[in-house]
Amino acid sequence: MGALGSLSLSGIVPKPRNARINSVNFRSVLLWDPPRVHKGNLSYTVQFKSNFPKQDFTNVTTNLNVTECDVSSLSVYGTYVLRVRAEWEDEHSDWAVVRFKPMADTIIGPPIVNVKSESGTLHVDFTGPAADHEHDKWSLKQYYGSWNYRILYWKKGSNKKVIHIDTKHNSEILSQLEPWTIYCIQVQGVIPEWNKTGELSQELCKQTTHNGVTPVWIVVIVLLGSMLAVIISVPICFISFWYLYRLTKHVFCPSYIFPQHLKEFLSKPPSGSQFISPVPQEEHHCHDWLTVISEEPKSQSDETVEETTETTECHQEQESG
Predict the structure, then answer these.
(1) CA 279, CA 286: separation in Å to the nearest integer?
(2) Across-strand partners of 99?
(3) Which of 93, 107, 215, 233 is deepest in the core (most CB within 10 A)?
(4) In this structure, are residues 41 and 71 in contact, taking their beta carbons and an 8 Å threshold?
């Protein structure tokens, strides 16, 4: 009969093996392995008690047919003793005991990370992780007194020469990076008060773009090109303006040169008796005659007689001519 026969005769049920807690983000499950040798189909009973305040054991579940039990309903701020035993008909095993403190024992999962490349920098945003035992899904930052995010980044292919930054915020800008270079990033939660570090997020790699800083040689070339353009354009603009001015003057204000032969002809005095003085010249002669007028004071009657005399003489000269 061996061991099974001796266990049956003695009426003793072996206790569960390797009892343990698996807790991630406060989702906590008590696990164990069944006894190596047992009679028929076993069931299990799980109990807990709180140390602060101290109390007696209370059933979590009974007649359990699987080798695990969810204990996430326990307050995350308590300290507990959990125990499980195997049962068969009216017989039961000894208790397998596990101590559990959710705040210290739960594993901090990785945050959700998003990386964006912009102007030579990497913008890293991260959220969570969230508690997995309540419907509200609060962030674990709400439960711990101190919380930091640790950002680890390195150039891809550089044997992971890692640089890390700690921040209390949910975002960070990684600057002073080499342009057009691929960087890989991971983020984890850090709780100094409990000396806990969370799991690393999935590795994300992103290439940086141009950092927006113009190299000196480009600045020098642009400056010299601008100066050369000014030196060339100023004379061209001046010449164009002068040409336009001359063209406009020629079109709207043309200058005529009097022919030389006409100048010589008109400059010669009239010859022969056939030359007839034009009327304007006679009028000019009359005017010359009239200009010889005494400026001595005369009576009004004398001035009238003199003007009549001068007018008569002028008409006589015109008729004789």
Answers:
(1) 10
(2) 81
(3) 93
(4) no
Task: Find where tokens 């800083």 sit.
Answer: 213
Lowest mean pLDDT among 33-42, 162-171, 208-217, 243-252: 208-217
Overall fold of domain 112-207 = Immunoglobulin-like (2.60.40)
Q: Is 175 helix (H, G, I), strand (E, B) or coil?
A: coil
**Which range among 19-33, 120-134, 165-179, 238-252 has the greatest average pLDDT?**
19-33
User: Is residue 90 within 8 Å of 96, Cβ to Cβ?
Assistant: no
Please report how many Cα atoms fall inside a 13 Å half-sphere around the Cα of residue 249, on the Cβ side.
8
Task: Write down the domain spans for the chain.
Answer: 2-105, 112-207
Q: Which residues contact 57 (CB under 8 A, 6 or more apart)?
A: 47, 48, 49, 81, 83
The number of angstroms, rounded, from the C-alpha of 307 to the middle of its chain's C-alpha atoms is 102
The per-type count for the chain, helices as H runs and strands as E runs, is 6, 16
Contact 171, 123 (CB under 8 A): yes
Cα–Cα separations (whole angstroms), residue 35 to 32, 204, 274 = 9, 44, 161
> Do 2-105 and 112-207 fold alike per CATH?
yes
Q: List, in order, residues 6 or more apart from 226 with CB less than 8 Å away.
A: none
Instruction: Quickly tell me which residue has 């109390």 as its tokens.
Output: 55
User: Does the domain made of 2-105 have the CATH classification 2.60.40.10?
Assistant: yes
